[in-house]
């Protein structure tokens, strides 16, 4: 059976950045949004390291806000550098998408 884990990791970063470009969001809600969009098997242990790395790289920032029920929530937002990085990702993704689709769906199978 094919393991999608490595493939997902490669594209999750771009998907996370895209979701954050639409709104600031806290980690648990981000995971729920990813699940709603089709990443049904996504785990917090996959998403939080990506968020941590994106913060370290300066592509996203965090802000903590008090919660009415429980501990404070850490919201993630895109920085200007993150917008630039997302646009680069989208440009490269479009190119890779076309190439892969041409090979997988339009090449002659021998």
Layout of strands and helices, then pairs:
Elements: H1 5-22, E1 25-26, H2 27-36, H3 44-56, E2 60-65, E3 73-78, H4 80-106
Antiparallel strand pairs: 1-3, 2-3
Could you explain the architecture of this structure?
- It is a single chain.
- With 110 residues, this protein is α+β, with helices and mostly antiparallel strands.
- It contains 4 helices and 3 strands.
- It has helices at 5-22, 27-36, 44-56, 80-106; strands spanning 25-26, 60-65, 73-78.
- A 3-stranded antiparallel β-sheet has the order 1-3-2.
- The radius of gyration is 16 Å and the shape is globular.
- The mean pLDDT is 90.
Mean of pLDDT: 90
Strand order of the largest sheet: 1-3-2
Helical content stands at: 55-70%
Largest sheet: 3 strands, antiparallel
Backbone shape: globular
Task: Identify low-pLDDT runs.
Answer: none
N-end to C-end Cα span = 23 Å
Radius of gyration: 16 Å
Number of DSSP helices? 4
Element order, helices and strands? HEHHEEH
Strand tally is 3
Strand content: 5-15%
Main attributes of the structure:
110 residues; alpha+beta
Brief summary:
The chain is an alpha+beta fold and 110 residues long. It has helices spanning 5-22, 27-36, 44-56, 80-106; strands at residues 25-26, 60-65, 73-78.
